Structure formats: C-alpha cells, structure tokens
Amino acid sequence: MSSAARVPEERAAALVHAAGSGATLALIATPEVRRDPGLSHAAREAVLAAIATAAPEYEPGPGSAAVTLRAVLSRTDALTASGSALMREWLDRIAAQAR
Prior knowledge:
Layout lengths: L3 E2 L3 H21 L9 H13 E2 L8 H11 L8 H18 L1
Antiparallel strand pairs: 1-2
Helix pairs in contact: 1-2, 3-4
C-alpha cells in the first residue's frame, strides 16, 4: 500500500530525527535491565503515523499541488540553482498558506 505525505518534507525529516534522537537518548539513559526493547519501534510507528497516511488527505488546490511539485522538484534540471531555490521558496509559501 502506498502512502501520502501528511506534512512537508522538511517537517517529516525533522520529526524522524527528533524521534530517533529522543528514543536513542532515552534508551542510553535507562539502565539496561529496565530498557524497553520496543521503544524504538513504538517511536518509529508514532512518527510514521504523524507523517504518512494510507491515502492522500488533502483538498485539491494550490496547496496540495505545491507540496507535490516541491517533492519532485529535484528531478528536473530545467531550472538554474537560483531558480530552483526561488521555486522551492514559493512552493513552501503556497503550501504553508494552505494549512
């Protein structure tokens, strides 16, 4: 089953990093005999639930189009580096306004 992004790419990456770092630090700080071996799995599942959904949950319109285009922008070489940076900024603004 494919999934759709529930949040923008940068936020998803930040959530994965935060959960991974937090779970790691929590496990390190807990004495080995008291560690929950399922903690990292539970943290991963919570993050996946926060960032992905089984089916797209969006209203068709400029916001969802901006998120989609932003996700695949790196697949084109039609823009210069500065053009790509400007396009990313515009798409991020459009997506943020739609939330």
